[in-house]
Design brief:
Length: 26
């Protein structure tokens, strides 16, 4: 993975998809 391409927005968007797959109430 290229950290330069992965911005905070990219990481957040990716994390959002994971949360959708695994909805966990924290």
């Amino acid at each position: 993975m290229q950290d330069e391409l992965m911005s905070n927005e990219e990481l957040f968007f990716g994390l959002s998809e994971v949360l959708r797959k695994f909805p966990v109430e924290t």
